[in-house]
Amino acid sequence: LRADRQPEFTQIDLETSFLSEEEIRALFEEMIVTVFKKVLDVNLVAPGTRFPIMTWDEAMARYGSDKPDLRVKLELTEVTDIVANSNFKVFSTVNTLHNGKVVALRVPGAAAMPRSEIDSYTEFVKIYGAKGLAYIKVNDLSKGREGLQGPVVKNLSDEEFTKILEVTGAKTGDVVFFGADKAKIVWDSLGALRLKIGHSEFGKKHGLFEEGWKPLWVINFPMFEFSEEENRWMASHHPFTSPRDSDVDKLISDPEHCYAKAYDMVLNGWEIGGGSVRIHRADVQSKVFEALKIGPEEAKRKFGFLLDALQYGAPPHGGLAFGLDRIVTMMTGAPSIRDVIAFPKTQRAQCLLTGAPTPVDEKQLRELHIRLRNEPKN
After folding, report:
1. 54 and 216 in contact (C-beta within 8 Å)?
2. Residues near 140 by Cβ (< 8 Å), separated by ≥ 6?
3. Domains of the chain, with CATH numbers?
4. What confidence tens digit (pLDDT) does each residue in 121-148 have?
5. Is residue 214 within 8 Å of 268, Cβ to Cβ?
6. Are 105 and 190 in contact (CB under 8 A)?
7. What is the pLDDT of residues 76-121, one digit of tens each?
8. Is this prediction's pTM over 0.85?
9. Where are the beta strands (DSSP E) in the chain?
């Protein structure tokens, strides 16, 4: 379990009717600002200002995360178009992948890192599905190709590496790391690397990390994500989240580019609250089911009660749920929510007090009408 996760947690769920997405965000932003001010005497934002707002697309493109930690002063830069026709096949073949990307992460001053540390980052990104980590070390920008070092330098043309250095803002003493794969793998791996370097001693020593409170809203989450296993679109959150008004007509024809009236409140890299506006129209709900390949009969069988209710009329409604344990963890400066929960579970989700989970006997399984397909081995 991650530091911000537990099987059991406390959630404060707040629901509204007849409020727009913007009104909901404003209401709960004021609430959390007031709580931090009264409890810690902290201004999350300057008086009279609001939380920054960032779309999901922007957050992923710039930070590789839908809950970016803005204390880390590193950003990603996409260079897919620059290397589209490169002789370096690791970069150019990305064009054959659906939503393939080549993305760069510039780290100021990283040329001073020992080779062993850079190599350790290569192993680190493999955790997130990356096959490797290409990089360019800028020893002396004024010397052109002769001032560069790294495994990809010889494979890039003068025009390609010049343009890459230009768009990333690389200077003498920097290192530019690259990820090349499907977007999710690139974002996950470089997003994690960004945090690892930013929070490291190197990052703090070189001004890549800034202490403080950095809240923001991330909005316009994708409605759907494609399941290769089931070969169909799945709801990213749940199938009752309302699409943005401008995307209703694309639910069937272009589900990949449909976005939801969904929003997360993020603070220092943790999602402390999330919510959405729900569908209140039967015709829109039916379109969402159709996009998910849920036919009319199946929809009626599974969700008939909801579709019937929507036909009689339901108010526009939406809300937000705060993770109380996460908020308390951040306010106390604890490293994990395990430190603020009574009887927390271990990282393996075990309870040290009761010893749970423990094996169950056949009688207990029968009482719950559960049958094991694979009998335990003796």
Report:
1. yes
2. 146, 147, 172
3. 11-58+213-331 (3.30.930.10), 72-206 (3.30.1360.30)
4. 999 999 999 999 999 999 999 999 999 9
5. yes
6. yes
7. 999 999 999 998 999 999 999 999 999 999 999 999 999 999 999 9
8. yes
9. 11-17, 53-55, 76-78, 100-107, 134-138, 148-149, 175-182, 215-219, 224-227, 232-235, 262-267, 270-278, 317-323
